[in-house]
Amino acid sequence: MPAASDDHDLRIACEKSFDFSGPDYARLFEAAATGAFAHPLWLDTFYAMLAPARGAAPVIVTGRQPNGRLAFVLPLILRRVQGIRLLEATDLGVSDYAAPVIDPAIRPALAADTTLAARIRAVLPAHDMLRLRPVRPEAVADWRIFLAAEPQPADFSAHAATLTAPYADWRRTAFSRSFQKYLDRRKKRLLKNPAVRLDRLEGPAAADAVHRLRDLRSGRFAGDPIQTPDVARFYAAIAERGSGAGFCALYRLSEGDTPIAYVFALTTGERLLYLLIGADYDNFGRHSPGLVLYDLMMEDWLARGGRIFDFTIGDEDFKADFGTAPTPMFILTGTPTVLGRAARIVFAIREKLRHMRGDMLHRTVSTKTSET
Q1: Where is the BioF2-like acetyltransferase domain positioned along the sequence (predicted)?
Q2: What are the structural domains, with CATH classification, of the chain?
Q3: pLDDT tens, residue order, the chain (372 aa)
């Protein structure tokens, strides 16, 4: 496949290896403000650990200005799924938002370049289907600058709450009266024990907590990605490396030496992104530990200067209880081959069935179970 295109002063290349930990990408990431799933640590770990474990080849498209400065990076992977060559965003079940990383100063020129998509297509590996998911509304137009992909609404949304100080006042207006009463009763009952505390773990302790969180989730969710060793190792690496750097927030609610619940989250700027919870419902279920932990985390995040508490994707009922607003999500697809067009239909049917099974499971679980 062609390695690079040098037309129009912008050097475009498709790279199998790229230094996400280096200063060039750090500068681009800071300027782009793309979010946690484009963070240098996240992508560096994703390509080093998770992608090879899943048989996914890196496809990293870069655009550099004549002075060598990065104008954009498109983080992609290529893998075979049921015989289909699938080119996709860095998802693999762990990334909730997919977006290109673009220097905002260069974006207008990129959007106006009518030859850019063709030049990028010339350096891409052969593929039957392009799939970009999940994509927030603001990233749809950005992806279409570079790739021939049509957006379709996803059958799920993302949910986030915008916090304001003081927390008690915000909570009083954001939560329904009935939910406040329900939560306050359980919170009071749990916190009356002075041995109950909230901690944010760092380093090896954060990595160990990921495995404990995984064990608490075991058997609760069909197809839970963290139950696979490669995903658990990936999250543990992010927790260990990212907790001290202010990128990963690993919360633990405990009673003395006994863990009650854990939450794995990412943080960038003023936004915290909740990803995973594991709670000991066998011993603490009557306290609704997950709901109590979310409440304590929101207060802690606001006290640390945070503003957005992002519950990310998924339409679980409990998210609305916490004063969130929904954001519609999109999936972008392109099918350059006949095989890809057929696969798109099959994948769409399979995704629909998967969500139907998930909805059926969701309707059968109790309130405490829906805290995930």
Answers
A1: 177-319
A2: 4-154+329-361 (3.40.630.30), 164-306 (3.40.630.30)
A3: 334 554 458 999 998 889 999 999 999 999 999 999 999 999 999 999 999 999 999 999 999 999 999 999 999 999 999 899 999 999 999 999 999 999 999 999 999 999 999 999 999 999 999 999 999 999 999 999 999 999 999 999 999 999 999 999 999 999 999 999 999 999 999 999 999 999 999 999 999 999 999 999 998 888 899 999 999 999 999 999 999 999 999 999 999 999 999 999 999 999 999 999 999 999 999 999 999 999 999 999 999 999 999 999 999 999 999 999 999 999 999 999 988 888 888 777 776 766 565 554 443 333 333 343
Query: DSSP 3-state helix, strand, coil percentages of the chain (rounded to 5)?
Result: 45, 30, 25
pTM score of the predicted model: 0.91
Q: Output Rg (C-alpha) for the chain, integer angstroms.
A: 21
The tokens describing 231, both together, are 């995903």
Nearest to 271 by CA among 235, 301, 294, 250: 301
